[in-house]
């Protein structure tokens, strides 16, 4: 669309500038001519710079065939009327008042650009704050529980992509639930913020993509619009390590207390047991084997020996002998432990598979104590595995080569989620004739070596114990 402008004042120059910088999609307007009696008019000067047709008499426009629209900017109605009278039928015309629409469009366009620029800056700042400055996981959640935004850190922890999260319910993503969080043990901070209009804090257990439990400290802050809370900003921090450390410290304190109690009880019981056993055996010597009393005495002796075994385990648990450490080959200790337990596995028709990593450095530890721990884990695996099952024993290095790892896994019945947190507790057992001290003793031995033992298990899916020893430093320096 070719445009001729009558009146080369300030408005004409602004119109030329507006059309020059604006991008049109439906039409392609182009100013081709300007008329004004003043040679120094701003619009005329601009038109000359762009080498447009310039004239002092607008009547020259009526002879041209390349003009589609004439715009009168002189402000004189008689000029506009004259244009209407003389223009060709194919040419359109608008007066100066109608032309004000261009300046309104220009003003709106400028405002849009300013707002767009400010919005871009705000979004960039928000991006920096959410993804670079804040170490916490960040969610922006609407009042209907739908996620509006999420930072990269939380996406990484969840193992999900941005599009997989936006628009979905927060409880669906973080808790794998179909309904919002509720109850005293799992309060919904969003609901609390909507109710009180104040920030709220709580602790939740989230599930990662593998449904492992992660402890999170959560703080929610309201976002207001027109006096109403329309969404919340949720900052959550993974405190799983802190919680696990607290559990370890509580476990250590409990084990120490139980150990002291066990030592006292064991010593007090051991002497009477010896007396009972000796007396029963002496009486048996004076009674014929077919006598019913002989069988009762046999039962007393048998049960007394079982009590003595429990007392011995109590003393082993309570004693907590300090390890006599030397540099040892972990692969060699594991191989010897497998040889000592292989017959029990074969007798139960259970195959034992071993995988040994090469180039594992020597580790400073007490060979006897570590072997005792491994034998206990392997025998436990044998008891938990059905005939035809498999036990896998592996050695290796952690991903950062900071630890030597030994894993003992089985295809057995597994451990239920309600029991797995208790397996290292003294006297906790799932066996009919178990003392509940084997894993407690193993746990203590590993800890005294500066190591750690972890368990992964699900009911019906087997169990895996992993022992880690630091390669150097700390308590593992010989």
Summarize the structure in words.
The chain contains 13 helices and 17 strands. It has 4 domains: 2-108, Rossmann fold, CATH 3.40.50; 134-238, PAS domain (Beta-Lactamase, 2-Layer Sandwich), CATH 3.30.450; 246-319, Helix Hairpins (Orthogonal Bundle); 326-476, Histidine kinase-like ATPase, C-terminal domain (Heat Shock Protein 90). By secondary structure, it is α/β, with parallel strands linked by helices. A 5-stranded parallel beta sheet has the order 3-2-1-4-5, with helices on both faces. A 5-stranded antiparallel beta sheet has the order 7-6-10-9-8, sandwiched between helices. The chain has a 5-stranded mixed beta sheet with strand order 12-14-15-17-16. Helix 11 (330-347) packs parallel to helix 12. It is rod-shaped, with a radius of gyration of 42 Å. Helices cover 45% and strands 22% of the residues. The protein has helices spanning 10-21, 42-49, 77-86, 96-133, 152-158, 162-165, 170-174, 189-196, 240-285, 292-319, 330-347, 367-384, 438-448, and strands at 2-6, 30-35, 53-55, 69-72, 92-94, 137-142, 147-150, 200-207, 213-225, 228-238, 326-328, 351-355, 363-365, 390-397, 403-410, 452-457, 463-470.
């Amino acid at each position: 669309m070719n445009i001729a402008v009558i009146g080369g004042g300030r408005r004409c120059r602004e119109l030329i500038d507006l059309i020059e910088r604006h991008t049109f999609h439906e039409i392609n307007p182009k100013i081709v001519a300007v008329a004004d009696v003043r040679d120094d008019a701003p619009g005329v000067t601009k038109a000359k710079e762009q080498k447009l047709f310039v004239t002092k008499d607008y009547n020259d426009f009526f002879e041209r065939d390349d003009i589609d629209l004439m715009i009168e900017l002189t402000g004189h109605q008689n000029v506009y009327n004259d244009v209407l009278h003389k223009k060709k039928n194919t040419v359109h015309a608008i007066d100066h008042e109608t032309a004000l629409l261009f300046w309104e469009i220009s003003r709106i366009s400028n405002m849009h650009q300013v707002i767009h620029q400010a919005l871009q800056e705000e979004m960039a700042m928000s991006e920096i704050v959410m993804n670079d400055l804040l170490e916490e996981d960040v969610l922006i959640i609407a009042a209907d529980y739908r996620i509006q935004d999420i930072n990269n850190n939380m996406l990484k922890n969840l193992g999900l992509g941005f599009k997989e999260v936006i628009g979905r319910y927060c409880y669906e993503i973080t808790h794998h639930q179909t309904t919002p969080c509720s109850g005293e043990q799992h309060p919904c901070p969003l609901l609390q913020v909507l109710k009180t209009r104040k920030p709220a804090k709580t602790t939740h257990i989230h599930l990662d993509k593998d449904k492992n439990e992660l402890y999170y400290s959560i703080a929610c802050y309201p976002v207001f619009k027109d006096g109403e809370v329309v969404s919340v900003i949720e900052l959550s921090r993974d405190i799983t390590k802190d919680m696990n450390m607290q559990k370890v410290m509580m476990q250590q304190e409990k084990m120490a207390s139980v150990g002291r109690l066990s030592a006292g009880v064991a010593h007090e019981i051991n002497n009477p047991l010896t007396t009972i056993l000796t007396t029963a055996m002496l009486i048996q010597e004076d009674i014929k084997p077919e006598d019913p009393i002989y069988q009762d005495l046999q039962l007393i002796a048998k049960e007394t020996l079982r009590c003595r075994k429990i007392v011995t385990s109590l003393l082993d648990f309570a004693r907590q002998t300090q390890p006599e450490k030397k540099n040892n080959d972990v692969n060699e200790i594991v191989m010897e432990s497998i040889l000592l337990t292989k017959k029990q596995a074969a007798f139960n028709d259970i195959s034992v598979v071993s995988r040994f990593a090469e180039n594992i450095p020597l580790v400073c530890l007490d060979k006897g104590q570590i072997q005792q721990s491994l034998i206990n884990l392997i025998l436990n695996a044998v008891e938990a595995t059905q005939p035809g099952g498999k036990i896998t024993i592996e050695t290796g290095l952690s991903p950062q080569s900071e630890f030597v790892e030994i894993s003992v896994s089985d295809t057995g019945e597994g451990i239920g989620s309600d029991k797995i947190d208790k397996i290292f507790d003294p006297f906790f057992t799932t066996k009919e004739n178990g003392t509940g001290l084997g894993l407690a003793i193993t746990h203590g031995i590993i800890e005294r070596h500066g190591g750690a033992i972890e368990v992964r298990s699900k009911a019906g899916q087997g169990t895996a114990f992993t022992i880690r020893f630091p390669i150097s430093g700390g308590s593992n320096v010989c």
